[in-house]
Design goal:
palmitate, alpha+beta, Helix Hairpins, electron transport, 5-stranded mixed sheet, Immunoglobulin-like, CcO_II-like_C, 6-stranded mixed sheet
């Protein structure tokens, strides 16, 4: 016996489902499938919050459809239930107001607990849901500098540095010290943890841990000028043996990162290649945070100390040498480079070749920053 034809709405849903799902085919669900414990906890927070809100949204949407169908004009049965004198129901009022109130209380408690537990400045107390961190274990420190438009990673404990490549050992707590060279940026590795702002003259922090070997992408989550689109870096989480091999490869590069190299590296460039530095100047990150990587510049920490001690007196009013931190004589971009945008890093292949005669003013770091501000 043949089956009766399906209702029209069922057939429409069956035909349209693949079309509606097609835009999701290219989605990368890394936020919902992370490899770091902090990102896992943040994912769970999203799912729990959405589930709590759906407890109200779904019944309300279902009741909208039910009431529209139940009390349609052609339903004669509903006419018999019509009560023109009805105006109040205590039970209905309690139900309508208590359910949202309880959900708001749950969301508020969840937000309060998670805000403190997932504070990026708070040192980690666990590797994952089942493994606590040994208090004697010292976290690996990675100093992050957001440049125009690339990322510099300094490993002070290992004495190495990289450009546009971040590598971490699995199941080892990591502390990121984050700053920027010129404008505000945002450091974000979806696999690892949430995004944290990087600001010039300031230092922010992020504590995280990678739980399994993985290869991913990190990027800037805050618009910062002409080269923002390509401000990405490779992220790798290795087991201890793999991380040791990666460190050995970096140390084998033979290059050294000092303040002179940093001045060149900090100039605006797009699509900068990965670069390794076998050694790194110990106090370079502190100089970047204090806006004094150039010789002769006075550090912010020094000036704050002078102010704390009561100031330097009237005679210092004209002592402006070393106090210019933006154009002209920026702390990262020389004045003559103001309108000379670069499309590749200084150490990229072919970077030293003569550039074609063209107007690159649209790539100017200064102009992009002025528009951003």
């Amino acid at each position: 016996m043949s089956q009766p034809p399906s209702p029209l709405w069922t057939r429409l849903l069956r035909w349209s489902a693949p079309i509606l799902a097609a835009p999701l085919a290219g989605c990368n669900w890394v936020v919902m499938n992370p490899s770091g414990d902090i990102a896992v906890q943040q994912r769970d927070l999203i799912l729990i919050s959405v589930a709590l809100m759906l407890l109200i949204v779904v019944p309300v949407m279902a009741l909208v459809v039910y009431f529209a169908w139940r009390y349609r004009a052609t339903n004669e049965a509903a006419e018999k239930e019509y009560d023109p004198d009805w105006d109040h129901s205590t039970k209905l009022e309690l139900l309508i107001w208590s359910a949202p109130l309880l959900i708001i209380i749950c969301l508020g408690a969840l937000t309060w607990v998670s805000t403190h537990k997932l504070d990026p400045y708070r040192p980690l107390d666990r590797i994952n849901a089942t493994t606590a961190i040994d208090p004697k274990v010292k976290p690996l420190t990675v100093q992050v500098v957001a440049l125009d438009w690339k990322w510099l990673f300094i490993y002070p404990d290992l004495g190495i540095a990289t450009v546009n490549e971040l590598a971490l050992p699995t199941n080892v707590p990591v502390r990121f010290d984050i700053t920027a060279s010129t404008v505000m940026n945002s450091f974000y590795v979806p696999e690892l943890a949430g995004q944290i702002y990087a600001m010039p003259g300031m230092q922010t922090q992020l504590h995280a841990v990678a739980n399994k070997p993985v290869t991913g992408i990190g990027f800037s989550a805050n618009y910062s000028g002409a080269g923002f689109t390509h401000m990405r870096f490779g992220y790798h989480a290795f087991d201890q043996a793999g991380f040791d091999a990666w460190v050995a490869k970096v140390k084998g590069s033979g290059a050294a990162l000092d303040r002179t190299v940093y001045q060149t590296l900090a100039k605006p460039s797009e699509k900068a290649p990965v670069a390794y530095f076998a050694t790194s100047e110990p106090k370079l990150f502190d100089a970047i945070v204090n806006l004094c990587p150039k010789p002769g510049q006075r550090c912010m920490s020094e000036l704050m100390h002078i102010n704390q001690m009561g100031g330097a007196g009237k005679e210092s009013a004209k002592e402006t040498e070393g106090l210019q931190y933006d154009f002209p004589n920026s702390h990262v971009i020389d004045q003559e480079d103001r309108n000379k945008g670069q499309e590749t890093a200084p150490d990229a292949p072919g970077a030293g070749a003569a550039a074609p005669a063209a107007d690159h003013s649209s790539h100017s770091g200064a102009d992009a920053h002025a528009q951003h501000r």
